[in-house]
Structure formats: structure tokens, C-alpha cells
Amino acid sequence: MKRHAIALALAGFLLSPAARADVDLMGKTLQVYGKLHVSYDLYDRGSATAAVPDASDSEVVSNSSRFGFKGEIDLGATTKALWKFESEIDVVGEVGELKARSRYLGVGGNWGHVLIGIEDTPLKRLASAYTEFGDTVADRRGILGQVSTGDHLFNVRAKNMITYGYRGGGFAFDLMAANDFEDVTDPDQSDNQLFGAGLSYKADNWGVGIAYETQQDMDGTAGADAEALRFGGNYVFGNFEIGGLYEMLSDDGWGAEVERDAFAINASMKLAKDWKLAVQYMEADESDAGNDGADEIAIGAYYKINKAVEVYAVYAELSNDAGATYRLARSGHGQSYQPTGAGEKVSAFSGGMSAKF
After folding, report:
1. More confident residue, 190 or 313
2. Biggest alpha carbon–alpha carbon distance for the chain
């Protein structure tokens, strides 16, 4: 009977013209959810070189497509056990294994929640809340959290983490700590540490937030330490929304390229109820390494076919200073586009589709 109920629930989802999120299989105890997101990209990585004779090409990409199970189990009148098991899947078939995304076990109540496992840091969640074009070629991680060498440092889903969070009255507060947060092969699990904290407030038509993170022994290298601070906000008026984020990275042993600031500003407009136009500009200042800033401009349009299915078209262009090699769509998007050399411009046009349940 349970197998039949699960089959009927899945069939109902697949046949629904406006599928909703979080399909109940066993009430709140077991829910299934997911998102499939693919795109077709036309890209240009800069000037041709001996190693890259044709720097312009096309790519079919799976963008953070995922499938997961989650649930909550009553432990008393006000306390519940919480769990999630989420995996990234490659819709286009280039990667066969299921990559770990959010996976945790914990407890929660009116006092908040405590989770243990792997989860996005408060710093990463804050950037997601106040930027546009997530998981596309114009994803914020083309600039934010990346440094001029192309290293991707401060957009972490921390492993081996424990976190406390509270939600109430429009406020969200999180504390996270993790040993061996990158899962570096190292017998000393006290190395490679992360600590993060975040506080945000959301009203009916505006929101603000701040988050901090420190990382130690990054990539398992003793003394390779750095920290980050982000604050952002947004405001909605009618069919318009404006938002932005400011980021400050500080080096404490990783390297001079980390010592730099960056920002993102964006605006969007809803057309009718199904269309949305958006634009975003991001800039990374020159670091202590010198002459290694970058900026990125993006514009795009989204169309919702129904509550579950969306299509879009996005164009993004990233310009590097002479000493920088920032990559376009660094993480989130299923393929990052690395310039053919320092100082090169990278651009891409992407048409995509996503379906969620």
C-alpha cells in the first residue's frame, strides 16, 4: 500500500500543469523535492592562443540540478527531529556520481534548530538572497568570493559542520562551525577550520543582512587563513526591485590576492505576471597584488510557464584587468569559463530551462 501511495503521489506531480514544491510521500516525515536546470551556452574566452586555438564555442550544461529527500518527525509538543539528504545530479550526463549538497540531521523547536552535516554557510546564503541570476552564466560567483587567480574561496557548502539557527519575527540568525570543512585528507581534523555567522531581517517589501566568515588552513595548507564580511539588502516598490551586496575579503596568510573588496548592484522589473527583466553589475577592486581587478555586467529575461517551469535568456560579460584571471560563472552554473590568459575578457549568452518539484 505504501508503495502504491508513493507511486500515485509521483504520478500526480508529473501530470500536474503547475506542480508545487515538496511532494509529501509520508506526510511531513518524508518529502521529495528537486530541480532540473539545463542551458545551452555560446561563449567566448578571449584571444586565441597556441593552447586554445578556438576560444569561442558552445556547451550544453546542467546547472546545480538536484534531487532530495527531507522530513521532520515529532519528538514532543514543540520539538522535532529534522533531516535532509540532497544530491546534485548531472542532467546532461557528463558526471555520473551523485555529489553531496545539503545533508544533515538535527533537532528544532520554537527556540531554533541545531543541525549537523553539510550545509551552505551564512555568508553564502546572504549573497544568494541579494543578487540576481543564480546558477546561470551570470551567477554572482563570477566576482563575489572569487579572487584574481580564479580561486573560489568564500561560497562554501561546509562539510563536517554544526550550526545553530533561529527564525522568527522576520529575523534570521545563524552560527556555524566546522572542522575539516573542505574534507581535506589530513589526519589532524582540527586544521582546515571554518566559523561563520549571519543576521538578517526581512519585512514586507525590504530586507537587510550581514554575514561574517573566517577560514583557516584553506586547502589543507597550514597558515593559509582569510576572512570575509558581506552586507546586503533589497527594496521592492510596485513591479520594481533593487538590491545589492558589498564584500570585504581580508588576507591572513593565504595570499595578497585575497585582500580586496567587491560589490554587486542589481535591478529587476516584472512584466505582467509571468515575465521578469533583470540587470546586474559587479566589480572587484584591485587587491594588494596589484592591477588585478575585474567587472561583470549581465542582463537577462525570465518567463514562467507555470509554477514549476521557467525559461530564460541571459548575457554576461566579464572584463579582467591585466593581472587578473577571474572566471565567468565560477560555480553554481555547471560550467565555468576561464579566460585564455590574464587580462582577457570572457562573455557568454545562455538560454536555459528549469523545472522544480
Report:
1. 313
2. 68
